[in-house]
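Hello again, I could really use a second opinion on something today. I've been staring at a protein lately and its backbone has me curious. Can you walk me through what the tokens say about the fold? Take your time with it, there's no hurry, and the full record follows here:
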Amino acid sequence: MVNLKGTRIKLRALEPSDLDFLYQLENDTSIWEISGTTKPYSKKVLQSYLENAHLDIYEVKQLRLCICDADDVCLGLIDLFDFDPKNARAGIGIVISNPENRNKGIGAEAISLFCEYAFSTLHLHQIYANILEDNKRSINLFTKLGFEVIGTKKGWVRTREGFKNEIMYQKLNPYVH
């Protein structure tokens, strides 16, 4: 397995001790719009999720890792979802929990590490990200990391303000053509 440690952060598997962090993050209504969450999660449901977090990506079609600092403090989560081994692709999602930690390079380092893992270890051909059109920070981040726009889904996500367009970004594996 590739090293999932960068200069400032590391990516690691979820641990039982992450329950309170996961509970706080999953129930943060300010990020529900980007996560697609529509209801609160109980600690019991999240505990069950943690108990099954070890399952193989080929079995559950997703992989969620904690983004941690050097002291193993959880800063956020990064996910591969809709893992499709036949077509060698998956979606990627990321959230940095504390707004004070955003826009400081943590997300860029986490995405770079995760893409390297997905391309070199899982042998994915492509990774895609779905970003709401008004999420300028995420658009700038993914664009800076080599993701390219491949389409717009019109009126795709219902929000409190109405329907929003979602832009689909894609990055192809630079090692395989």
The first strand starts at residue 10 and ends at 13. Residues 32 and 38 are 7 Å apart (CA to CA). Helices lie at 19-26, 32-35, 43-51, 57-60, 106-120, 136-144. The longest helix spans residues 106-120.
